[in-house]
Amino acid sequence: MQHLNITFQQSILVPPSNQTHNHHPNKSIFLSNIDQILNYNIPTVHFFKANPDFPPEIVAERLKMALQTLLQAPYDFMAGRFKLNQQSGRLEIHCNSAGAGFVVASSEYSLDDLGDFVYPNLGFRQLALQTLDNLEPEVTSFKCGGFCIGMSTNHVLLDGASAQIFIENLATQAFDDKPLAVVPCNNRHLLAARSPPHVEFPHPEFFKPDLPAVVGPPVFDCKREELDYTTFSLTSRAINYLKDKAKENISSTTTKITSFNVVAALIWRCKALSNDAEYNKDRVSTLLNVVDLRSRLNPPLPDSYCGNAVLVAYSSATCEDIEKWAFSKLVEMVSEAPKRVNDEYSKSVIDWLEINKGLPCGEYMVSSWLRLRFGEVAYPWGKPVYSGPVVSHRKDICWIFAGVDGVNALVSLPAKEMERFVDLFREFFPQSIIN
Question: Which family does the record claim for this protein (predicted)?
């Protein structure tokens, strides 16, 4: 569906509920070098069945009040605005209490009309508007009484783990008398560069853009073009097939044969071999795997760290090798790459970014949402029947997230490339496993 026949009923800026309390009009939030390079929106949708005790208008009111509460002390920066520090050339968040966008809408459809929520639906982009620089919750009701909470959050503000905590906190504040689920750690200086910076390792997973001398960080984006969207749903049976395949000819005893690692290895293979209209065996394909730093640093970051505590681990090989190697070799590479990202390496990356103001450099990025529990968050009206990412214009990132029975991988590619990707994906399995 391209259009969900949506009628907008309310579109407002929600300020903190008590703007005078602890309000410092000149307060600015420091953003780490990792925060600086992630200036793009992540839209998500969270669908709920009808609940007679919580009609959509009550849900919208509860959510608005919950948001107002959160925008006070723990998340005051989410009611602020980005500003460029002219002296340092760095992005900061000006905590000016300008507010977060909040939209209430209704659709002529029922939830059943939308079909399988997992299937990429362009219409879902109407459920998570991206018209503001920061958070934009949207509550859309459907004629069946069900509703959707859509959120579009700039990645500078939150990574996946801190978005999970924000959503848990939003849910608790929608109750009458509940404390925060988790108090966020808002000290982004924990990931500040060292002074002076000390780069100890080569970092081929980043590049320094060849740009004129501009003030401010470069934007991590890609050109907009017509894309096809497919969610590859791998059942537990398909995952077990990949794990068995990964165990064949395995040379390393330390390889972690996890659901994510086998799916990421297969996605990498399909992407590398579908890239060129004319196959180029010597082309090097680099997979970037997003890793959480919280437990990798010394001392570890708090689990409640609010901000971007993520870096990329890289795996590189020629297309010829990717095609001829045993699947176990690719899984081994995907498994081993994150081990490189320890405390010393992470600090070296942050210092490299301080000097070079660079961006991630790879053919394809895989981001795991398997540990995120968006679908487990309990609101007063219950848990979502589905939570997941919304398709975007980015063809360089694959989101891997939990399915009902297995794992889903959301892939966005130009039509011809998608056609080759699908063929390579299906050819990898016996017909009895992939219908």
Answer: Belongs to the plant acyltransferase family.
Q: 255-289 pLDDT, tens per residue?
A: 899 999 999 999 999 999 998 766 688 999 999 99
CA angle 262, 266, 268 (to 5 degrees): 115
Instruction: Determine the Cα–Cα distance for residues 142 and 107; give it in Å rounded to an integer.
Output: 5
Residue 24 confidence (pLDDT): 62
Per-residue DSSP letters for 54-114? S-HHHHHHHHHHHHHHHTTTTTGGGGSEEEEETTTTEEEEE-----EEEEEEEESS-GGGG
How much is the average pLDDT of 118-147? Answer: 81
> CA dihedral in degrees (56, 159, 74, 357; nearest 10)?
-130
Which two structure tokens, joined as six digits, stand for 388?
A: 């997941």
**111 lies in the same domain as 243:** no
Side-by-side strand order, sheet with 90-94: 28-30, 90-94, 81-85
Choosing from 143, 162, 191, the residue where a domain stops is: 191
Tokens of 381: 């009206």
Question: Is position 198 within any domain?
Answer: no
- Can you say whether the dihedral through the CA atoms of 207, 211, 213, 215 is positive or negative? negative
In the chain, the percentage of residues whose pLDDT exceeds 90 is 75
In a domain, 421, yes or no: yes
